[in-house]
């Protein structure tokens, strides 16, 4: 069984503080900070669809309370299942939203991958997908997970188990299902971790994996060799 990080009281309080709306956001939505309607606020402001950040924070709050029923009201079943499987302590920072992509990040815990926490994809009034830092206990599993993400063209999935540099290097070229065939050759120990090879006609791709069974493995970098 992998080692799980338990959220302390301070971490929980810090994460919960992320959910409190600022006075500015309350005013913009036609409510006071206590949740009461502001007299004279335009009806459109009071009935406007919730912003992605609001939806994401509702799901995050339900998760902190371990309330699956509340989470199901604001997220798809797959998003709920993914979030409730998170093995690390709750992220303690809200990195905001870019469009419909909202991130909660760690500032005091080191986790594998470049995602550094939780990414929620919001569509309308629900979170439709959740990406999260993964705890993988085998180097070959980390390499295979990244390779699968590349096949799917899904950078966010890749960042769950690989550094930003590794993902950028791999995704510089789009995977071509009609192109060369890659053959997994397993992983071998190297001075700072493991090298997991995928051979193809004319060369090989090496995924350099670091970490441990307890902390989790991640792909740190990628290199190529030619025959």
UniProtKB/TrEMBL annotation:
Keywords for this protein: Signal
Domain of life, source organism: Bacteria
Signal peptide: 1-26
Record-given protein name: Tat pathway signal protein
Species this chain originates from: Microtetraspora fusca
Lineage: Bacteria, Bacillati, Actinomycetota, Actinomycetes, Streptosporangiales
